[in-house]
Amino acid sequence: MAKKVLSVFIALIMICGEVYMAVDVFGSDADAIYVSAQGSDGADGSFESPLATIAAAKELAMQKSGDVTVYFRQGSYTLLDTVNFTSDDKSGVTYKAYNDEKVVFTAGTPYSGFENCTVNGVKAVKKYVGKGADFNILFNEKTMLKRTRYPESGYLYIKDVDDRYCINPDLEVDTDFHKGYTAFTADKKDIPEMKNPGDAVVRVLHFWKDEMLGIKNYDSSTGLLQFTKPSSMTFHKNERYFIENVFEALNEPGEWYLDKCNGVLYYIPQNGETADNLTLRGSDTETLITVDGVDNIKFENIIFRGNGFNVPQSRDFSQAAYDAPVCVSCRNAEGFEIKNCEFRDIAACAVFLGENVQNARVDSCIFENIGAQAVYIRGENLEKDNPLVTKNIDVVNNLISGFGRVFFNAVGILIIHANSVNACNNEIHDGYYTAVSVGWMWGYSHSITYNNRICDNLIYNIGQGWLSDMGGIYTLGNQKGTVLSGNVIHNVAADPGEGGYGGWGIYLDEGSSSILVENNLTYACASDGYHLHYGSDNTVRNNIFALNGESQVRVVSNLSRVEGTKNTAAFENNIILCDGRAAAFSHLDSKEAYTEKGNIIWDISNGDNLYFTQNGDNDNAMSYETAKRKGWFVDSTVADPMFKDAVNFDFELSENSPAFKKGFNKIDYTKAGTKEGTKIGVSLEGGKTPYNADSVKQPYTPSRERFHALLMFWYKIVDFFGSIFKR
Questions:
Q1: Could you tell me if 194 and 168 lie in one domain?
Q2: Which of 16, 116, 144, 264 has the largest CB neighbor count within 10 A?
Q3: Is 249 helix (H, G, I), strand (E, B) or coil?
Q4: What angle do CA 74, 76, 80 make, to 5 degrees?
């Protein structure tokens, strides 16, 4: 009998312990709300009687005092409309997954019940989804699916451009990039006869912009292709384009086409998929969450997946996908936080932090397959003491893998009109444009963007030959106190075709001033490791610029626009490593434009056989000896820095490196990227990517190879006569 009583007593203790754990660890009855995909919005929100939606949870939270935690049980929650948090809602509420259960917020409408059919001679399935259906994103349980593309690979090229279709032909010359056009002439053999040309979208790649244009009319007799809106930038002959959502291109497994005219979705099944077992989700809801006017709203351990986007109907803004739609938006709020969340298969911008956002944080999240920016910070260019300035924001320890998938000119982390932003320890790769961009004022105008830290990021495989004029890190305007430090950047490549340019590692664009660039490793970029358009009083020290395609350092291209001291930058204690094909320094413009001391310069193929260029003119190329005689270099040293294996992208320095004797401080590359031992997203461990992962030497064009051969011959002759005449 005593044993039976003891057993019952122990059981009661265990039950009470479990209840206590649920209350103590996951919140008390007074401050916790529970939501389940199997719940009911008529329930009381307790652990035993959970609600069904986030909308109901935020309403219930208003009835509670103090900070509140809303726990979501495992499941997928479809948000049919945007959930808006306003000043009427309770502040201090955290929305998170319960006990690390898998919780997904999505906007995708599920489609099942397909029927078999044949399309373009290939077995397919189709489903009537309604003539009102207008989604541009389709995904299954694993990934975003591929919309049809014509041609299936490669590009078409604009045959001609007629100024009669220019909407603003009288723009000044310096704005010639931005003349909008409503048509161009295609090669008639390039354009297929399309079932529904009005459903198709023409994508034009030029400069730093990708156009997204609906077809208004196509004249097959002339090749004139007219659009439903003007382009944002000037069309030029031979620019690349392709066409999306073309019925005639539907022929590969995993591809889909939406016949918007007749409301029918077509899809080519992949292995294991049949009309009977198939469920696909199409989404046209752009924004899932908005926070505006309420403080301390937080999301933790939530997976956001599969929102939609609508093709813009008005003329686009040309820069950095400035006006792309947003999945999660925050304005006019303090203490907003997203931690250990995942954003997957997002149609456009994942997280937007707008005007008057302060003390916010995006921490340890995964961004994968993102249509535009992963994190977009955009305040207003207010005066420094204005209380509404967007500031004090941390974007730290995030993995951004695949951005700009829909809006190709989007930036991984875009910072506009904000100060005291820390974008640090992020791993950013696989994008078609710049990885981190800071600033939005061209020239020397007032800018509230200053005192930002872009540090210890691992950035690689950026650009990929799609667009032009980009950098691993890009800055604009006066930015006193801004620091770019400890970043590892490699494999940045712009459009290599006619008119393409600018795959730079660190790119200080127009007016970039008072910026400290130190302790960075930038290598294997198609253009320059460091490039300054124009600016004043920057410091570039203790960096490694190595094995980049055109030059390692491009000093200045427009000295006439430099204000103040005319000193664009001080180059101190850097290591400059060439590989026999690229200049060490290019665009040497004026001796007053920069100062140099303590730099180590070397060529792994040709030793001290280096070359430099003046004024961006390769005809003025000169050897180091000539450059030194002309006074370009006073305190730099030509010597082997003694890397362990730079040819194979191992940049560990020997302890006997002459760079250390010149004052170079060793860089710890392992600090770049996500932090070791941390949790990224729901379950991924941080710090696992080597700093030189996926490193590839940039190819050289045949014309550049020919130039190099002639150059080697030419400057040997110049050196010979220079030594005679002591020029």
A1: yes
A2: 144
A3: helix
A4: 145
Q: Are residues 157 and 193 in the same domain?
A: yes
Those residues of the chain that have pLDDT short of 50 are: 1-28, 703, 727
Torsion of CA 323, 327, 331, 336, to 10 degrees: -140
Q: Are residues 11 and 156 in the same domain?
A: no
Quick check: helix, strand or coil at residue 606? Answer: coil
pLDDT in tens, 291-350: 999 999 999 999 999 888 888 888 888 899 999 999 999 999 999 999 999 999 999 999
Domain tally for the chain? 5
Q: Which residue has the tokens 């007032």?
A: 446
Give 52-67 pLDDT, tens digit per residue: 999 999 999 999 999 9
Residue 415 lies inside a defined structural domain of this protein: yes
Element (H, E) at 93: strand 93-97
pTM over 0.85: yes
Q: Can you give the residue range of the structural domain that contains 422?
A: 334-504+668-689
327 within domain boundaries: no
DSSP state of 145: P
Same domain, 542 and 643: yes
Phi then psi dihedrals of residue 356, to 5 deg:
60, 40
Is residue 259 domain-shared with residue 352, that is, in the same domain?
no
Q: Which of 262, 345, 265, 363 is nearest to 307 (CA)?
A: 345
Q: Phi and psi for 622 in degrees, rounded to 5?
A: -145, 155
Q: How far apart are CA 199 and CA 186, in angstroms?
A: 18
What tokens were used for 479? 């930015």
Q: What percentage of residues in the chain have a pLDDT greater than 90? A: 74
186 and 269 assigned to the same domain: yes
Alpha-carbon distance 308 to 463, whole Å?
24
* Residues 410, 394: Cα–Cα separation, whole Å: 20
Q: H/E element holding 702?
A: helix 702-725
